[in-house]
Amino acid sequence: GEDVEQSLFLSVREGDSSVINCTYTDSSSTYLYWYKQEPGAGLQLLTYIFSNMDMKQDQRLTVLLNKKDKHLSLRIADTQTGDSAIYFCAEIFTGNQFYFGTGTSLTVIP
Amino acid sequence: GAVVSQHPSRVICKSGTSVKIECRSLDFQATTMFWYRQFPKQSLMLMATSNEGSKATYEQGVEKDKFLINHASLTLSTLTVTSAHPEDSSFYICSATRGGPLPHGYTFGSGTRLTVV
Questions:
Q1: B98, B31 in Cβ contact below 8 A?
Q2: Average pLDDT over residues B76-96
Q3: How many whole angstroms separate alpha carbon A100 and alpha carbon B34?
Q4: Are B84 and B18 in contact (CB under 8 A)?
Q5: Residue B10 has what pLDDT?
Q6: Which residue of chain B is at minimal alpha-carbon distance from A98?
Q7: What's the start-to-end Cα distance of chain A, in Å?
Q8: Residues 6+ apart with CB under 8 A from A62
């Protein structure tokens, strides 16, 4: 099966930028996504990028995709305490099956 | 926007009993629903895919007799954990799609925390 890896933890100070990284093994996915999960809650779609794009910016969020290295990142500018959550990257393949990363727990220090 | 309601949000049951979790698409017809399981501090693992009116497709290693999935209508899918045991304690999340082109169309429920005592 597909392996999607993320660092488990990230701590940043409020106001700094956060960069959450994701590596994957199967590059045949069509879209890659970033989801946010707050404690005890479901998943909230943050943003996505089409697999033939290199970058996508959406307000404070910037997604970078390096297909050659099979590396995806999410940059959150001006990180706020409300950004503290677990962030999952995910790929979608033919058959519309998602593969989720292992999740990165972001802690924002006031 | 598309909303998926999952109920209950939390449930505690005794070992050996069965628990039913509902997943409803509130403002769209969901041709396909997905059920995921999430262990503490781990990612979501797909358990099964269900299409309205047909049998669910289970992922390898998921016991279909233990995790009964029913997708009787275009707005409702249920997951029943039968003869629950403490090891079934987990966070279960459903997702629904109305089909159509990517990237949109997938909405996740808020999850159900199951604790078996």
A1: yes
A2: 95
A3: 13
A4: yes
A5: 94
A6: B46
A7: 39
A8: A55, A56, A74, A75, A77
CA distance B25 to B13: 26
| Mean pLDDT, residues A21-49 | 88
Instruction: Residue B90: name the closest of B100, B101, B81, B103 by CA.
Output: B81
Tokens representing B30 are 């969901």
Q: What residues of chain A, 24 to 83, have a C-beta less than 8 Å from chain B? A: 30-31, 33, 35, 40-45, 48, 50
Chain-chain contact of B106 with A98 (C-beta, under 8 angstroms) = yes
What type of residue is B21?
I
**Residues B2-19: what's their mean pLDDT?**
94
Nearest C-alpha neighbor of B41 from the set A82, A103, A96, A45: A103
Interchain CB distance below 8 Å, B110 and A42:
yes
| Averaged pLDDT, B44-64 | 90
Q: Which of B3, B60, B108 best tests the A interface by mutation, with the highest count of A CBs <10 A?
A: B108
Question: Which residues, other chains included, contact A25 with Cβ-Cβ below 8 Å and sequence gap of 6+?
Answer: A2, A3, A4, A70
A52-84 pLDDT, tens digit per residue, is 899 999 999 999 999 999 999 999 999 999 999
- Using alpha carbons, select from B28, B66, B34 the residue that is nearest to residue B51: B34
